[in-house]
């Protein structure tokens, strides 16, 4: 199988003017044995530094020596004395092994790294909180993608490498510890490609539990150059993350670390250098004893490769269905072959498969099968459905142990691992890996509890629950103040976690339970005490004893028919019954809604135990006033409608009133210009305050627009065809000289007995609506000709303002042209009746004489022409 492309470039500070060749570091401690003097322990301290052998010149070799400081965590003083450090020579330097590079890589990076170790032993006196061993230096590489470089600190942000050696408070009595040791090795990473970085560590003690996580990388403190300095005591500050990255997501949200295996995996981000720090939390018997760190840079390069990439394992714990996807998405991947491990296969790019039964299956993916750049990957798939994490929490008292019980169920295998987070924001020690741990909270309030449970078949799932921590146990009371009838008994009801006890001057049965019974003769208070393992709270209930029930019903009322009313009463009763129950929303409520159809007397009975009282409420039902606005109607435009309203009631009004001739009558005349609804509202004085309403719609038909054509002139013996439009029926009056007065386009022929005639045409549309238009015909007893006036006065008084030709007996005008005294054309038209207004290009012309010429064709087809002059008078 092709190896995963991962470039691990461990970041370490600069040496000399350019120290970016140092790319990572780790501080390790090992327990050797008892010290040379009583009360001391001997430890071997190892600093690992990593160097890029292909750094850009000038760059120095490995440092020949380093300054390592040790600080007592009890008082933060330097050991063995203030200001004294350990000057350690380089012990060894070897080449870092590089993983195999696949044969089909585009732009493969060149990887060559050395690792140096600086080792010494030291006797440390036993103390409570242990020691911190630390090395500090300046200058990470420039141009980091996720960390800001500080120019004032040499070439970039510095580095601090440290380890914490546990003391008596961390280690059980008589026990010792050696820190984990990270594996070493490098291989390339291509941006946008899936990758896996194996950052497991050796656990030399053999039985401790290691939990891996991303954490903040430390800066170099006050260091300003690569020159060795005496390190500063803890605590140490974080490097400044930028561009949306942070210590828990140093390569973005697509890259994660497995807390159990230390495997970093995901899809590589854009090209660049990324500072990463991995922390190992070391637990012994469920208790955190130390945190081990490694700070490094991941270099992401622009490369690509064909390959098969699957996660190390898959667990499907909800159903028998499983889905798979090649994590290496590359155009170099041409073919796919999936073997699901149960005798079935698929050639899809992504695969979904449902297994017949639960079990563990070996799934194999083959890319480019039989090709030179082929690759394969195998993985284990655990298919064990019906795994459900759950928890139970007991005890919620401040400063007392709260117990967390694992209630996880599994159909296959056994539940064998637990990771609890108790949600205490004031500490990082609020965790446990025990099955049923306890934890003591020191602050009240809600705590978000998380349980990550796993089983022996590899299933892992998470559940959450919120617990409210209080300084006193919570007591829930069904009531705090109640009534009973003299002679009755009552059961008190409380809830909570712990032991209950009740006290009172009155007699109590079962006083040491949550639900005692009491029968006081007079009003009494009952005090309840809840003891939750020494966490105590008290509360009380008052029981008032009465001899009768106080009841006063609401006043009688009136409602409109079909309406409803809310019944009510003033009473100290505890239980209620209304009758009759018909049309009542809840007969057992004190204030139900009633919707009687007729006037009804309702009786209310109120109870306190055996005591009761009754009262009546009368609801009078009055019908709504009735309004009838009449039938809808349709009218012609600019006509009217006679409304036909009627009411059952006292008074009325119409709306809108502005369109009615008399809104005070039930039969007003409406004159709307467009379709309008008219609302008639009726009122009464019989007790129903609401009006009755009805609406009549008066629809106004579209306006009929009659047109009889333009006025015209003819000569005796010339036929003229009139043309009316706007409807479907037409009637001309008078019918003189018309071929047919009932058509839209009759022909008129005059004999010379008339000089002029004016026709009226009545136009009717399909709905029967009408309109009227007129046309004037002048009859000349001359030959066909074109009349042209000799003068005009364009002064804007609408009298003789336009110089135009008047054609008589002509079928058309060929042209009518006007010229000024220089022979320039100032106006031209071929339309009869169109003329010149005395302007040229919008400019008024001066008074004077102008020449005109006209040509036309008469109704017999003969040409006619004339010319002359016209005088423009201003």
From TrEMBL:
InterPro entries: Ig-like_fold (IPR013783), PKD/Chitinase_dom (IPR022409), PKD_dom (IPR000601), PKD_dom_sf (IPR035986), T9SS_type_B (IPR026341). Pfam families: CHU_C, PKD_4. SUPFAM superfamilies: PKD domain. SMART domains: PKD. Gene3D superfamilies: Immunoglobulins. Residues 326-383, 417-469 form the PKD domain. It comes from the Bacteria. This is PKD domain-containing protein.
């Amino acid at each position: 199988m092709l190896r995963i492309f991962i470039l691990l470039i461990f970041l370490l500070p600069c040496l000399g003017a350019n120290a970016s060749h140092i790319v990572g570091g780790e501080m390790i401690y090992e327990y050797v044995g008892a010290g040379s003097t009583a009360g001391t322990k001997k430890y071997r301290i190892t600093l690992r530094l990593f160097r890029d052998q292909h750094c850009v010149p000038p760059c120095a070799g490995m440092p020949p020596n380093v300054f390592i400081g040790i600080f007592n965590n009890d008082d933060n003083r330097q050991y063995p004395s203030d200001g004294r450090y350990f000057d350690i020579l380089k012990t060894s330097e070897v080449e870092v092994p590089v993983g195999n590079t696949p044969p089909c890589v585009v732009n493969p990076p060149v990887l060559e790294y050395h690792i140096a170790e600086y080792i010494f032993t030291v006797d440390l006196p036993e103390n409570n909180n242990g020691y911190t061993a630390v090395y500090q230096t300046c200058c990470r590489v420039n141009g980091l993608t996720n960390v800001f470089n500080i120019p004032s600190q040499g070439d970039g942000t510095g580095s601090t490498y440290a380890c914490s050696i546990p003391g008596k408070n961390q280690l059980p009595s008589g026990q010792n510890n050696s820190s984990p040791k990270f594996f070493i090795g490098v291989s390339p990473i291509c941006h946008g490609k899936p990758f896996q970085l194996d950052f497991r560590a050796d656990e030399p003690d053999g039985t401790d539990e290691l939990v891996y996580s991303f954490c903040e990388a430390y800066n170099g403190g006050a260091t300003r150059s690569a020159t060795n300095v005496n390190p500063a005591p803890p605590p140490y500050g974080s490097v400044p993350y930028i561009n949306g990255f942070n210590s828990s997501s140093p390569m973005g949200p697509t890259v994660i670390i497995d807390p159990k295996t230390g495997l970093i995996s995901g899809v590589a981000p854009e090209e660049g250098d990324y500072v990463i720090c991995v922390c190992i939390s070391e637990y012994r018997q469920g208790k955190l004893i130390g945190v081990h760190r490694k700070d490094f840079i991941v270099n992401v390069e622009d490369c690509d490769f064909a390959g098969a990439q699957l996660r190390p394992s898959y667990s499907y714990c909800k159903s028998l269905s499983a889905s798979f996807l090649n994590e290496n998405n590359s155009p170099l991947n041409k073919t796919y072959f999936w073997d699901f491990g149960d005798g079935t296969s698929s050639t899809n790019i992504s695969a979904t498969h449902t297994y017949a039964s639960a079990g563990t299956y070996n799934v194999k993916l083959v890319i480019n099968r039989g090709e030179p750049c082929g690759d394969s990957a195998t993985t284990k798939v655990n298919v064990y459905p019906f795994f459900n994490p759950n928890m139970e929490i007991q005890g919620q008292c401040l400063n007392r142990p709260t117990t967390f019980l694992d209630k996880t169920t599994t159909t296959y295998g056994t539940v064998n691992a637990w990771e609890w987070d108790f949600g205490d924001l004031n500490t990082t020690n609020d965790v446990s890996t025990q099955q049923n741990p306890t934890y003591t909270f020191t602050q009240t309030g809600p705590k978000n509890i998380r349980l990550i449970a796993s089983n022996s078949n590899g299933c892992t799932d998470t559940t959450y629950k919120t617990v409210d921590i209080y300084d006193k146990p919570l007591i829930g009371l069904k009531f705090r103040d109640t009534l009973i009838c003299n002679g009755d008994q009552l059961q008190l009801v409380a809830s909570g976690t712990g032991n209950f006890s009740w006290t009172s001057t009155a007699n109590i049965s079962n006083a040491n339970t949550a639900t005692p019974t009491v029968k006081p003769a007079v009003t009494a208070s009952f005090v309840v005490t809840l003891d939750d393992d020494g966490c105590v709270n008290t509360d009380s209930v008052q029981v008032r004893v009465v001899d009768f029930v106080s009841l006063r019903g609401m006043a009688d009322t009136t409602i409109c028919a079909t309406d409803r009313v809310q019944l009510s009463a003033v009473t100290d009763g505890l239980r209620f019954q209304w009758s009759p129950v018909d049309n009542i929303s809840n007969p057992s409520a004190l204030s139900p809604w009633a919707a009687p159809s007729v006037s009804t007397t309702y009786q209310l009975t109120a109870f306190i135990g055996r005591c009761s009282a009754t009262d009546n409420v009368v609801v009078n039902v009055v019908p709504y006033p009735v309004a009838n606005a009449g039938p809808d109607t349709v009218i012609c435009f600019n006509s009217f409608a006679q409304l036909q309203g009627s009411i059952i009631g006292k008074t009325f009004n119409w709306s809108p009133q502005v369109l009615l001739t008399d809104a005070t009558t039930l039969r007003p005349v409406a004159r709307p210009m467009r379709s309008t609804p008219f609302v008639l509202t009726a009122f009464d004085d019989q007790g129903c305050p609401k009006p009755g309403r009805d609406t009549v719609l008066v629809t106004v038909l579209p306006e009929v627009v009659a047109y009889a054509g333009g006025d015209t002139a003819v000569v005796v013996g010339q036929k003229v065809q009139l043309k009316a439009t706007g409807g479907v029926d037409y009637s001309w009056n008078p019918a003189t000289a018309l071929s047919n007065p009932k058509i839209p386009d009759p022909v008129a022929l005059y004999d010379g007995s008339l000089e002029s005639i004016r026709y009226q045409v009545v136009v009717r549309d399909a709905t029967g609506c009408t309109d009227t238009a007129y046309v004037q015909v002048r009859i000349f007893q001359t030959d066909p000709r074109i009349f042209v006036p000799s003068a005009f006065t364009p002064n804007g008084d609408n009298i003789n303002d336009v110089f135009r030709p008047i054609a008589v007996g002509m079928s058309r005008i060929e042209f009518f042209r006007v010229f000024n005294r220089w022979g320039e054309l100032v106006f031209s038209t071929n339309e009869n009746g169109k003329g010149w207004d005395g302007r040229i290009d919008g400019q008024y012309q001066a008074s004077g004489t102008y020449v005109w010429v006209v040509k036309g064709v008469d109704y017999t087809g003969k040409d006619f022409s004339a010319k002359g002059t016209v005088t423009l008078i201003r």
